[in-house]
Structure formats: structure tokens, C-alpha cells
Amino acid sequence: MSLRAARAARGWSQADAAGELAALGRATGTPVAAAASLKTLLSRWENGHALPEPHYRTLLAELYDRTPDDLGIAVAPAADATTTASDRLRSAIAAAAAVDHTGLELWWEQLAIAGRLDDELGAAGAGELVRALVEQLEETLIHTLTPDRRAQVAAVLAGAATLAGAQELDRARPDEAWRRYHRARTAAREAGVPEADAVAGQAAVLVDVGEPATAVELLDLAGPATCDPAQVRLDAARAVASAAAGDAPAAHEAITAAARRLQHTRVDIVALPGGPVLELADLHRWHGRALVALGDAEAVGPLERALASTPRSARHRAAVHADLALALAAHRPHDAAEHARRARELALRIGSEQVGARLAALRTRS
């Protein structure tokens, strides 16, 4: 009995089967893709374009109460290694060729879901989902032949890899974050979408490892962006990097340029093509971060305005609380301690070691 026949015997559509498989994954504690992505995977498995991974083979066997052999998804011993490798390559190329407009839309939907989950739970809740999505997109892009389709897949990959970079930075893995952002940049170039988020991410990595001057150099080499939202992101990254390098005039000039450009858009939220959204309130967060790096007491104002706007991302809220703890430590220690407590709570929730590292400066001062 084939996978398709087993599903038909239950009277399920592919969407029904995807939902049942997702529920079984949750019940057994087995990590699976979102239901929308599972529907695409089921189609590929049923059409023979790909063989399910081992954990999916186990789940499918349990779902349909059949053995993998019964369902035609058992791994047969290969005659020799060359044949196996050839079969794998042919299967991967066929699977990539089978990706259509619907499949791309589902990937965009999965990226949006991953982004919302990351906003709430960070790497702790969305890390595995983002990692799996990046790997799937990488595999598809490697085996996609036509330039137009490659560009479409690369656009989703640019956004997913950028999100993965932010999560790796949360985990205090700057080397892995750098690689993710680098992949996001190359994917963005192939897709023809702005790479500003990924460039800014790499600049943040360099600042994080104590190389702010190199971060400024990186931003210089990146050159101007092709659209206002992307340029705002680069200006803000330059402000933070310049401040960390001790260049106050350059930091103030960059944040002023970002504010002017962002005000010019006259919208509350700007979507960066191929990446996450840019909130106007982010400007206060970047401004405050730069002033904290400069040791400027005026940092409290923009940081409090950022917090009052309730940033959608728990990562951003944790960062603002941490920066406020640093900015208030000298003159309002009680308030600083409260912000530090909130920052640590959020950091624990999203799995961020980076926030804890920033707050370590408070213990050094005391």
C-alpha cells in the first residue's frame, strides 16, 4: 500500500493528513514542520520526489498503522555507493523542480509564522523551526536550475537566514551568527532584495566581539542601500558601531540621518523585502543603545520611549531593559535593578545569553 493509498483509505485530504501528522508529532515529542509545510512534504513523498527523513518514516508508520515497507518508504540497501549518490542527486533535483508557486507561498507563510514565534519565544521556541526552514531552502536552492526560480527561493532564504543569525547571536554564538548573516547576504544578492538586515547583523556581531571599528569598515564597504527602509537599517547600525568605537560625532550624525529618513517614509511599519519588518519605534532603541555605548546619560530618554511603544519582539524588549539598567545604574540604582530583573526574565524566556553578557557589566561596576 502506498502513502497515497493509506491516506485515501482514511478518507483524508493532504491537509487532513498534515494536521494529523503534526498532532502526532506534538503528542510524541517529535519535532516536525508546521502543518502547511507538512502538506508540501506529503505531496513530495507521495509523488516519489523525496524519501521521508527517519523520524518522519516512524511517524508515518504509526499514523497509518503500517510498516515503512508497507508504505513504500523503507530505505532499501543500495547496490553500491555510486548508485546511491546518483539516486540522491536525481531525487534532490526532481524535488527542487517540483517546487511551484504554492510551495513558495507556503515557505513565506512558514517564515512569517517562525518570525511571530521568534518575537514571543526567541531561539528557545523558534530555533528548531528556523534551522529546519533554512536547511530545506538551502537544499532546494542548491538543486534549483532556473534563474527565476532560484531568485524566488533565495528571497525566502535571505529572510530565514537573517532570522537564524539573530537567534545565534542570542545564543552567544557569534561565529555561527556571522555565517548565517553571510548566507543571508549572498541569498539576498541572488534574489535582488536588500541585504541591509544581514549587513547590520554582521555589524552587530563585530560590535559584540569587540571589533566596532571593523563593523564601521564593513558598513562603509556595503555602500548605500537602494531603498529608504534599508538605508535606515544601515544608518542605525552605523550609529551603534560608531558609538561603540567611541566616535560620538559619527554616531550622532548616523542616528540623525536614520531619523530623518524614517520620518520621510510617513508610515508606522515598513517591510523590508525578504526580511522582517522595521518599526519606527526601533529608532529609539538604536538611539538609546548608541548613547549607552558613549556613556551619555541622555540614553534614558530614547530607551524609555522605545519601551513605552512596547516593541513586538521579546528580544528587543530584553535589549531595551538591559540598556536601561546600564544607563540608570549610576543615578537610579533601584530602577536599574528592576530593569535588569525584567531583562533577565525575558532573556531566560527566549534563550538569550547575550543579554546576560551585557548585564555582567553591572556587576563589574558594583
UniProtKB/TrEMBL annotation:
Domain of life the protein comes from: Bacteria
InterPro entries named in the record: Cro/C1-type_HTH (IPR001387), Lambda_DNA-bd_dom_sf (IPR010982)
Entries under SMART domains matching the protein: HTH_XRE (SM00530)
Start and end residues of each HTH cro/C1-type domain: 2-71
Name of this chain's protein: Helix-turn-helix transcriptional regulator
The organism of origin for this protein: Pseudonocardia yunnanensis
Lineage per the UniProt record: Bacteria, Bacillati, Actinomycetota, Actinomycetes, Pseudonocardiales
